[in-house]
Fold this sequence. Notes:
- It contains 13 helices and five strands.
- It is α/β, with parallel strands linked by helices.
- Helix 2 (about 10-25) packs antiparallel against helix 3 (about 30-40).
- One of its GO terms (biological process) is DNA recombination.
Amino acid sequence: MEEAVLYRSPSQIRELFAILICTCGLSNPLQLWDKYKVTLSEDISHIFEKMDQVNNDLCLNEALIHIEDKIIRISGKKLSDFGMPPPQRRGELSTDLIKELSYNIALLDTQVSETEPCLLLEQKDIYNKILQRVELGEGGLFFLDAPGSTGKTFLLNLLLAKIRKDRNVALAGASSGIAATLLSGGRTAHSVFKLPLNLASEETPPCNISKNSARGALLQQCKLIVWDECTMSHKRAIEPLDRCLQDIQNNPKLMGGVVVLLAGNFR
């Protein structure tokens, strides 16, 4: 462990710690944890600092959760089986949620202040309407018809930055991996919403997200969802998202009352 601490990342050290516990029969793993717990939770602590929520107990608990998850995958056992204190999983912070709240606020402020004046009249109208719906909490489903080279990605990234700079959650998805890389924090829609791959073969395909899951906690906090190149997706990709959001938000409104912006070339 001493050598690993010098050359490895906290995530890699947690992996090593889990392997040592599972396979090496440590006589006193708690003592080893006490010695290296600051290093084992260093990256998590940095995330909390960005969120202005520095709490050592929460950081250490989150590190224990990561370690226990690795131990479960390796041996099927829990930390308590090795004489370690079990992490508190009730009300645990979702790793996804921590990531979405860890954007650099100063950089987002700069991005918004520099790019807002560059909006064209039509872009500004769309921008204001989306933000108004988010601020009022009214929700809504919007379609942005934009052929290539019309500033669609520019507008989407500005909307994402505007929501995130106020420490709110805005999710960015796209129907293709290439389109996802152009969005800030973007991922494929299948990854974000856990859509099944065989959409065409199922009559009512589900999103594999439950209310009590980490992704469910993320969607509960979500203020805006941007889905780029949605016209490339099967229609059954949109319907399960609607059902999923209604369930997670406990709201029968369209998309569970979350503002969803579907962008693409509809022509």
